[in-house]
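Worked example
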Amino acid sequence: MGPHDELLFHGRTVQSAHAIREQFGPMSVRATIEALSQHFEHLRATRPEDFSVRLADYWNGFHS
């Protein structure tokens, strides 16, 4: 579990993207979004009860 997990659980996608880059080092925006999306899918599959934001509303306001 990384520091970005709690951010993802609460729908804070932009802050989570920043945390991913801090944890794993510099990467392109595209690579960051791919890593964020893959980790989001993993957490949704393994820990759905920890999310405070409904899946239907999760990506509202997040544009890449």
User: Anything to note?
Assistant: The chain has a mean pLDDT of 85. The radius of gyration is 11 Å. The chain is about 60% helix and 0% strand.
